[in-house]
Amino acid sequence: MSDAWMLCKTWTRLLLRGLVLNCLISMGVTYADNAVSVEDFQLQRSDEGIYLSTRLNFEMPPSLEDALNRGMPLGFVMQADVMRERWYWADKLVNRTERYIRLSYQPLSKRWRIYVSAQPIQSTGLGVSLGQSYDSLAEALQGIQRISRWRIADVLAIDSSAKQRLDFRFRLDLSQLPQPLQFGALGGAGWGLDYVQSLKLQEDSFK
Known about the structure:
10 strands, alpha+beta, three-stranded antiparallel β-sheet, 4 helices, 2 domains, about 210 residues
């Protein structure tokens, strides 16, 4: 069997996986890789914008907790996409808002630190909009898991005359790991914190 044929089969398999996931999202099905769930998922609309409030529920996998205790920071990404559904073509991205989170342990002070930014957080700390310290990992996780009035879009992004939905995703940001660990993490079940939820945007979607 030729290399070209094997390559074609690989790309076809990857494409089919992507299509299945997209179908699940469009049907409003939740996909969770490592026991992540949400409670009280709420959308609020005001003159200032569209706000998301919810609570993420998950436990830190032992492999991730061990990495943190060894001094390796972990990054997480929350992403909210407003999509316009189109029957004749791929759905259109109307608005995307992201929140980047970095969690780290400081051995000298024995405290946990969370940084939050609207842009990827660099090792230099540039672009960080919020930083807070905690006494324990449990408290730090609560700071990550609580989402309170996160502004995810402008009011004008919501068109009541169009079929729109909100795609929300929370995931471990593997790109922030040292490169040698990125390849191992991709195949490791203990590194797979990932959650996706889709919600059709209608008048009764807002509290």
